[in-house]
Structures are given as structure tokens and as C-alpha cells.
Amino acid sequence: MANPAAGYHYGNAPPHQSYGGYQQPSAPYGAPPYGMLAPSTFAPGTDPTVIACFQVADQDGSGMIDDIELQRALSSYNQSFQLRTVHLLMYTFTGINTKKIGPKEFTGLFYCLQSWRGIFDRFDRDRSGKIEAPELREALLSIGYAVSPMVLEILVTRYDKTGGSMRAVEYDSFIED
């Protein structure tokens, strides 16, 4: 399944991709995979909602959000996020394997998740919080992919957190892959 955020897939975004004014970082070739995240601040004019969400998520008041804080914040809206998805998101917005994000990275993540949520909701026609096989088929057709029933079954089984018994893709799996 193609990631709905144009070009983002496992941190391999084009170096000039941006969301809400956030510029995707590009690490120089040979940069250490476990670098330090430079402290950041909110850009002037940042939406107060983004700042408030960051402050609520930053439970220890460190000015950075760690993976557990982010998972807790993302999971608080009647939706669970696997830690694997949280780590993928953090890597996507920092370009390094750190388990923390600052205000600048959070702003990009916030706007990107809003975009993904809109796309997910557009295809979750029954508002179940999951994209079932018929909805997934429609989503794929809308972006030009006609898949056989067998391929559709493989996709649903692969992205279904229950291993296929639910026959649906939840929001965090939709984001992850």
C-alpha cells in the first residue's frame, strides 16, 4: 500500500518535501544513524493548537517529546498506535534514529497526520475506524490500482493487526505502510 503522504515511505522522503512549513531534513551521506537531535523551537506564527498539543504531550516538560509520550498522545483519541509506528514517524521527521522530537519536528508530524487522517476518513465510508476490504479496493482504484481479489486479500491480511481475522486496516497500519 502506498503511503498517502506524497513521497514518504520509511524515512526516504525527497529532501525538499514539506508539511505545514516543516522541511524534511536530509542527513549527509555517512552521517551517524544515531545522531543527536538539535533543540528546536516553534516557528513564529505556529498555530496555537499545534503548540497546545505539543505541551500536553510533553508530560515531563523537557521541551522534547519521547516515543512513549508521543505514543500516549497519539493513542488518546480512541485510536491505538503501535510503538513501531511511532518510531517510524519519529524517524521520518528527524532523519535520525532518536526517540525524541522537538517542536519543529512535531509541527511537521502534526500537519502530516492531519493529511493522512483526512485521506483515511475519506475511504472509511462506514466510519468504523478501519478500512475494510471493499473500502481498500475503492481507495486503490481511486489512485489507479486495480487489484485482483487475491491481491486485495493479501494486502488486507498483511496490514490487518489481527493477522487477517478482522479483514480491515486500522489507521496506524495505514500510516505505517
From TrEMBL:
It comes from the Eukaryota. InterPro entries: CML48/49/50, EF-hand-dom_pair, EF_Hand_1_Ca_BS, EF_hand_dom. Gene3D superfamilies: EF-hand. PROSITE patterns: EF_HAND_1, EF_HAND_2. Keywords: Calcium. Residues 45-80, 111-146 form the EF-hand domain. This is Calcium-binding protein CBP. GO terms for molecular function: calcium ion binding. Pfam families: EF-hand_5, EF-hand_6. The keyword Calcium applies.
